[in-house]
């Protein structure tokens, strides 16, 4: 079997031209060469993986949409309301501690 037998027909292949910075392209090609692969192979792999992820995302969303409705939750009892004003009347405020100089805060005399 020769190389011509393995080659895909022109109907099965298409070129995909992109614009990319020269330095980025050169670095990508160099790394691909170091990894014993080609830039084209890695781009094709990326496209296949990207499409697989997107297809999986669409299936997951469709599954959520088609799922059975969740039963409505029981209403929660209201929490008791704390009457802060009444508590303040029942418990008078504590006196403020004196400062180190013996004066209460706010009662200092100007020097």
Question: Topology, please?
Answer:
Elements lengths: L2 H4 L15 H13 L4 H28 L17 H7 L21
Provide the residue-averaged pLDDT: 74
What share of the residues does DSSP label as strand, in percent?
under 5%
SSE order, one letter for each helix or strand:
HHHH
Number of strands: 0
| Mass-distribution shape | elongated
Main beta-sheet strand count, sense and barrel state = none
**Helix amount, in percent?**
40-55%
Structural class call reads: mainly alpha
Point out poorly predicted stretches: none
Q: How far is it from the N-terminal to the C-terminal residue, by CA?
A: 106 Å
Backbone CA Rg: 37 Å
Task: Report the total helices.
Answer: 4
Explained architecture:
The protein is mainly α and 111 residues long. The protein has a domain of 47 residues. Helix content is 47%, strand content 0%.
Give a quick summary of the entry.
The chain is an all-alpha fold.
